[in-house]
Design goal:
Elements (H helix, E strand, L loop, with lengths): L13 H20 L6 E11 L5 E13 L2 E8 L9 E5 L7 E6 L4 E4 L27 E13 L5 E11 L9 E7 L5 E7 L7 E14 L5 E12 L5 E11 L10 H6 L4
Antiparallel strand pairs: 1-2, 1-13, 2-3, 3-4, 4-5, 5-6, 7-8, 8-9, 9-10, 10-11, 11-12, 12-13
């Protein structure tokens, strides 16, 4: 998930500096979006919604993923709390067009497609959105380098050395924010922090994502991958936030293709 082009600015005249800077911002986000991913993956993802008053609501779910012809397919199988238990979401990347996303809602006992106009909404009631749970196409945004050297410390106390990049969507109707300021870790190329700015007040940060912990993990085939192990999204407007912790990840171990079907969404059975 391609070696990044070296930064060569010292010999550039000032008139060309901004253009080179912008190109490198694009290259960094491009590399981030094309990091090597396992052929298959599965893990328990423990989400916890934490209200402003400190009360907590666990939302455990299983994640199943696979790569087919360079495109990623992902299923989320929610196991609690009772109000969303057995909700399932299927995301399928497509070449040259918007991804397919489907949701099974047990109360309605039906599978329906999630239209583009709903993908900025909360993912099954947590502070992550459907857009947050997928990889955004690098060409959907304009990317500008704001700083080559930024130090970021996240709530867990972990400190990152980062590039600071502004990413502005070309189609603002598809997202819930006006633009993002991304702090990209120079070692892993994972986002250490993302500030999302409000559509109405472009100076106000509406929510903040952080990668609280990550590590290199070795798959069943011996390959190493950089994986986010802990993350969070804080809603600055309501004070509510959601944490995510990845447990028992298994990669490149094979997985039944039956998970990535609407039948699995409605039955929860892949065998």
């Amino acid at each position: 998930m391609k070696l990044l082009k070296k930064f060569v600015f010292a010999s550039f005249a000032f008139a060309f500096g901004t253009m080179a800077f912008a190109d490198d911002a694009y290259d960094i986000i491009k590399k981030q979006s094309t990091l090597d991913v396992p052929d298959t993956s599965q893990a328990l993802m423990q989400l916890t919604n934490i209200e402003k008053d400190g009360s907590q609501e666990p939302m455990p779910m299983y994640q199943y993923g696979r790569e087919v012809n360079g495109l990623v397919q992902t299923v989320f199988d929610i196991k609690g709390p009772p109000k969303v238990k057995d909700t399932r979401v299927l995301q399928m990347e497509k070449n040259g067009r918007e991804d397919d996303r489907w949701i099974y809602q047990p109360k309605l006992r039906q599978v329906r497609r999630i239209p583009m106009g709903e993908r900025y909404k909360q993912f099954v009631g947590c502070e992550f959105t459907y857009n947050d749970m997928a990889i955004r196409n690098v060409d959907d945004d304009k990317h500008e380098m704001l700083s080559e050297n930024e130090t970021v410390t996240v709530p867990s106390g972990k400190t990152y050395n980062c590039w600071k990049i502004k990413s502005t969507p070309f189609k603002k109707s598809e997202v819930e924010y006006s633009y993002r300021i991304q702090y990209i870790d120079k070692e892993s190329y994972l986002p250490a922090k993302i500030d999302y700015y409000d559509k109405k007040d472009h100076n106000r940060i509406m929510k903040v994502y952080t990668t609280d912990d990550w590590m290199y993990l070795t798959s069943k085939t011996g390959k190493k991958y950089a994986m986010r192990m802990k993350a969070r999204v804080v809603n600055n407007i309501t004070g509510r936030y959601t944490t995510l912790e990845v447990k028992n990840p298994v990669m490149d171990a094979g997985i039944s293709p039956n998970y990535f079907t609407q039948q699995f969404l409605s039955t929860g059975k892949a065998k």
